[in-house]
Specification:
single chain; alpha+beta; Rossmann fold; 6-stranded mixed beta sheet; 14 strands; globular
């Protein structure tokens, strides 16, 4: 199986939608993905994700199936904090204070249990349960991939219960996506979220090849913007 993760196009957050540029990004990514023989299309329940998936669904005549666990509002409640340096609420990976904490030896040593660091149990993070947030996304991810034929048996290792020869696309978000992909790949969230990012409409492709009955998800490309370049649309580095 090839799994495609696509962030929504350039967003309007309130009301939940896409900017004119975002619609052009959605059309560009839809045209590109239509050439890749996508078998199934999924999207978060956010309007901006559904709107980004719509051109691909129209071209391929396929239904968009909705995944509520991928809705970014839940991830925002799960994985944010108040940043004193920014003076506002922010994703953990955007907070300068947390980013620095994420790279201390003590927290790195905790691996996937980074949320057990004493700092996250202090009054500065009162009311937050980061363990529950990560576990929610991991559970949703596991159930999703098991429905596709892959049962997670260890970090980054899946038993191939029913080999899937298809190509599956999920349209969702940045904040959710960084946690989701860290769960899929078995890479601790602090490391993944501070060293990778996802541009609007960026395409990440993950190979679930069968190796003696197991799959070890491998990233073939991450947050590709080739479809934007082809249509002369702006990227981070143009």
């Amino acid at each position: 199986m090839l799994f495609f993760y696509i962030r929504h196009g350039d967003p309007i957050y309130n009301p939940d939608s896409l900017t004119p540029l975002g619609h052009r990004q959605a059309e560009a990514v839809g045209r590109m993905l239509s050439q890749y023989r996508i078998n199934e299309i999924y999207a978060s329940t956010s309007e901006r994700a559904k709107l980004t998936a719509a051109p691909l669904a129209e071209i391929t005549k396929k239904e968009v199936k909705l995944l509520d666990f991928a809705y970014e509002g839940y991830a925002w409640n799960d994985l944010t904090c108040y940043s004193e340096q920014l003076g506002r609420h922010a994703w953990l990976f955007h907070s300068p204070e947390v980013k620095e904490l994420f790279h201390t030896d003590e927290l790195v040593a905790l691996g996937h249990k980074w949320y057990e660091h004493p700092a996250f149990l202090s009054d500065a993070f009162a009311g937050k349960d980061y363990k529950a947030g990560i576990e929610r996304i991991q559970k949703g991810s596991d159930e999703f991939f098991e429905s596709l034929g892959y049962k997670r048996v260890a970090d980054g290792r899946y038993e191939v219960v029913s080999e899937n020869k298809g190509r599956v696309a999920l349209f969702a978000h940045q904040g959710f996506g960084l946690a989701f992909l860290s769960c899929v790949l078995g890479i601790p969230y602090p490391m993944f979220s501070t060293h990778f990012d996802i541009f609007t409409s960026g395409v990440t492709v993950i190979d679930f090849s069968n190796v003696n009955g197991y799959a070890y998800p491998k990233v073939i490309e991450h947050s590709s913007s080739a479809h934007l370049y082809k249509q002369s649309l702006p990227t981070w580095y143009t």
